[in-house]
Amino acid sequence: MNSLSFTETDATESAARAQDHVDDTRLQRAIADLAAFGARDDGGVSRQTLTAIDLEARRHLIEHARALGCEVGIDACANLFFRRAGLDDTLPPVLTGSHADTQPVGGKLDGAYGVMAGLEVIAALNDAGLRTRRAIEVVAWTNEEGSRFGPGCMGSSAFVEPARLTAFRTATDGDGVRFGDALDAALAAVPDVPQLPMARAMASCVELHIEQGPVLERANVPLGVVTGIQSVRWFRVTCMGQMAHAGTTPMDERADAMASAVALAQRLYAYAAAEAATQLRLTLGRWLVAPNSVNTIPGSVTFTIDARCVDEAVLDRFELALQTAIADVRGLRATRNDITVESLFRQAPTHFPADMRALVETGCTRALRQVGHDQPVRLTSGAFHDAMYLAGHCPTAMIFVPSRGGISHNAAEYTDAPALLLGAQALAYTVTALANG
Ligand code: HGY
Ligand code: MN
Ligand code: MN
User: Fold this and answer.
1) Percent of the chain as helix, strand, coil, to the nearest 5
2) Half-sphere exposure of 52 (CA within 13 A, CB side)
3) Which ligand has its closest atom nearest to the C-alpha of 106?
4) 372 alpha carbon to ligand 2 midpoint, in Å?
5) What's the pTM value of the predicted model, to 2 decimals?
6) CA-to-CA distance for 364 and 360, rounded, in angstroms?
7) Ligand of minimum distance to the alpha carbon of 146
8) Closest residue (by CA) to atom 6 of ligand 1?
9) Residues near ion ligand 2 (Cβ under 5 Å)
10) What UniProt keywords apply to this chain's record, in alphabetical order (predicted)?
11) Binding pocket residue ranges, ligand 1, CB within 6 Å
């Protein structure tokens, strides 16, 4: 096979061989080995970004990748890249992978599956004795979840737009730790890993991920071709009041911040219920009450809003409704309570290109046919992913496998081994074909 001029047949044959060398046992072991870092008694995983346990997991990934013959690099946002050289290293590589951080109470698969399946593709290529025209890089993005430090997808968004990193460094976690300090510690922990520039050219990107929703399981089809990712907006609302004694303060003389927050939250949930037909999704997930004492009237209550929809106009209308609700609640206690809202994160809907989706469909269909299924399901992602930033950087696509009960961001997150194998097989086909393109 001429090293620099691959024919269509070569690319397809190599893709099929890579797919056929994906090893189920090796994949399961790799997922289990990573899940041990932050393992919980309830079967979940707690490995928030740049915590000590995350740094231990990163070291494990570096050693695992080196054992597969990969070169390892890290960029200024501590994104880890595991590179399998191509025959022509002047060409931009094909990127796969996902994130290795988890929610505070996460599962074994969210993000981790895409990283370990990417490394399994490299192991399969090694087993098959295949060289590819382009290099293949598997990435472990920093802080996809955005739970410890907001916003989400810090690593991938800084990779494509490095100027964002300055502001990200000032983000703080619940203990007041700055992202910049945690980042510097993560970089110092890997002095043996060379630093890479950000915003490097990539030929294409494919991210494999669990669906985290119910669609594939209800369709009883183990593979999904992701058509795009819905739009997301995060806000922080702060309701101010006045701390006072719970026993001595008459109800009509209080500036109770919790009363404002609850009145506002009730309006927002009622709005979301009225908008159900639009598939608007509203979550008020993180609440901070000061001074959080049973017998002091709350002086301030802060809560986050996570609003999502495939139709951005719905989110625009939601923002107007939010302002109206705030004005309403301010009116209830006009003199004493103030309410502020701050935008934390916003991302327009993502649409993956047709040619990338077609290639993913080919890889999925070949894998499915081997287990008696016909073809993959096409679906939009309800969750956001690093691929939403890569989609603006290079041709990008995603592959999904089902989540049992549609559950994720929960210790009960689970996908059966046959589906995990199929996802890795579809990834191997797609990435190998792209790497020979
Ligand atoms: O929130 C999300 O959609 C992602 O799972 N972090
Ligand atoms: Mn994820
Ligand atoms: Mn997640």
Assistant:
1) 40, 20, 40
2) 0
3) 3
4) 29
5) 0.95
6) 6
7) 1
8) 145
9) 110-111
10) Hydrolase
11) 144-145, 152, 383-384
Give residues with Cβ within 8 angstroms of 302, minimum separation 6: 236, 237, 238, 239, 287, 288
Domains of the chain: 8-230+349-435 (3.40.630.10), 231-347 (3.30.70.360)
Distance (Å) from CA 323 to ligand 3 centroid: 28
Token pair of 286, please? 């993180």
Instruction: Name the phi and psi angles at 418, rounded to 5.
Output: -60, -35
What backbone phi and psi angles, to 5 degrees, belong to 324?
A: -65, -45
What letter represents residue 110's amino acid? D
Query: How do strand 300-309 and strand 231-240 relate by DSSP bridges?
Result: antiparallel
User: Tens of pLDDT along the chain (437 residues)?
Assistant: 333 445 566 778 999 999 999 999 999 999 999 999 999 999 999 999 999 999 999 999 999 999 999 999 999 999 999 999 999 999 999 999 999 999 999 999 999 999 999 999 999 999 999 999 999 999 999 999 999 999 999 999 999 999 999 999 999 999 999 999 999 999 999 999 999 999 999 999 999 999 999 999 999 999 999 999 999 999 999 999 999 999 999 999 999 999 999 999 999 999 999 999 999 999 999 999 999 999 999 999 999 999 999 999 999 999 999 999 999 998 876 545 699 999 999 999 999 999 999 999 999 999 999 999 889 999 999 999 999 999 999 999 999 999 999 999 999 999 999 999 999 999 999 999 999 99
CB 309 within 8 A of CB 279: yes
Residue with token string 């090893």 = 23
Cα(333) to centroid of ligand 1, in Å? 36
Rounded to the nearest angstrom, the distance between the alpha carbon of 253 and the centre of ligand 1 is 42
Question: Does residue 155 contact residue 162 with C-beta atoms inside 8 Å?
Answer: no
- The Cα–Cα gap between 365 and 376 comes to 6
